[in-house]
Amino acid sequence: MKYRPVLLVVLLLTGFYFVTTHLASTGALAPWLAALHPAGPAVGIESVRGTDGAFDLNVASAAPAFDSEEQQNIDVYKKALPSVVNITTTEVRYDFFFGPVPLAGQGSGFILNKDGLILTNNHVIGNAQPGNIEVRLYDKHSYKATVVTVDKVHDLALLKINAPNLVPATLAESSSGLEVGQRVYAIGNPFGLSGTMTRGIISAIRTIRGGENNLIEDAIQTDASVNPGNSGGPLLNSRGEVIGITTMIASNGVEQSAGIGFAIPINTAKTMLADYAKYGRVRRPTLDIMTLPINPDIAEQIGLAADYGVLIERVLPGGAAEKAGLHGGTERAYEGNNPVMLGGDLIVAFDGQEIASPQDLAEAMNAKHAGDTVTVTVFRGRKKMDFKVTLGDAKDQALGPQT
Q: 79-160 maps to which CATH number?
């Protein structure tokens, strides 16, 4: 009996030796090990033979499977790609000796409807002459485009082509509910590489100045890679809906992505399209005034009733402000070497929204349409007054930089 434990140990060691040296080497344990440790995709051996010898490769024999995130990327791309176009332009400029020099430009855009309307950036078409704008579809067919209308203030342009079987993009219902951190996709033609998609998030929603020193309200900032050639292309949400129009990059002088790109919100584009549908052109609202920004120092020097707001230097004859009874300045003064007119009304609110700067006024104006009636609150001297103003049409302006 005293040898029984020793015998048991010997039997266990013998069995372990047999299993590890015989069964493992013959592959008899493989089904048992596979059951305990499920493997990934099956791997087969593929032999490659040539004049210099042969070697084996491990090759997956299972069909590729995408995770949910990859599948979403693929779905967005397949949905949006047929609507994205490449736009090339030729602009003729003149050198020092007045010789014509053709300059080629390139950008992106997207199809709005089956009638051939295409939305892009105004700076993509630049000053291209009629007949020098070409649109290339995803199926590689190219068509000459005509300019239907432009909105230079918001860097938008509407083109038209005559082509069959067009696939319109799906526009998001609104861009007002966008959130920082939301996933976005950009599709365009960076550096001429058509059909390129990049992915990122919304980094911020902010007001920026465009290439023509124009204000773009509620611009969508994104870290999705955006490069020259992406301009005018769509910025998409995770459902493949257009939430913005890619317009510019912040690159610190280097013309390539630095992780900061901007897109015009789709709400701004819809306002432009509504004007076109109703009037056949873009109508920008205006007060028909020339203004001077105010800060606390200037306000103290000239004795204003508020240390913020926008001072009316001049009202344009027959314009919206003059018709409503607003007053411009009557006293000539100088800001540095620049002559200014003082004594006019100081705008401090627009339809109940406080106006502290020309940027505030521009943002408030761009939420309106030409012909809308608004309430403008001003200080005339020390007296606070409200005026009902019917906004004019910027196209009818004839003088200088105005609001």
A: 2.40.10.10
Catalytic one of 83, 108, 123, 151: 123
108 is catalytic: no
Question: What pLDDT, in 10s, does the model give residues 317-352?
Answer: 999 999 999 999 988 887 767 777 889 999 999 999
Identify the active-site residue in 83, 108, 194, 231.
231
CATH architecture of the domain with range 183-279: Beta Barrel (2.40)
CA distance 291 to 340: 9
Q: What is the pLDDT of residues 22-68, one digit of tens each?
A: 655 555 555 655 555 555 566 777 777 777 778 777 777 776 788 88
What ranges do the domains of the chain cover?
79-160, 183-279, 285-396
Sign of torsion over alpha carbons 237, 240, 246, 251: positive
CA–CA separation, 218 vs 209, rounded Å?
Answer: 11
The verdict on whether 68 is a catalytic residue reads no
- Give CATH superfamily name and number for 285-396: PDZ domain (2.30.42.10)
**Beta-ladder partners of 249:** 261
* Catalytic residue (one of 155, 218, 223, 393): 155
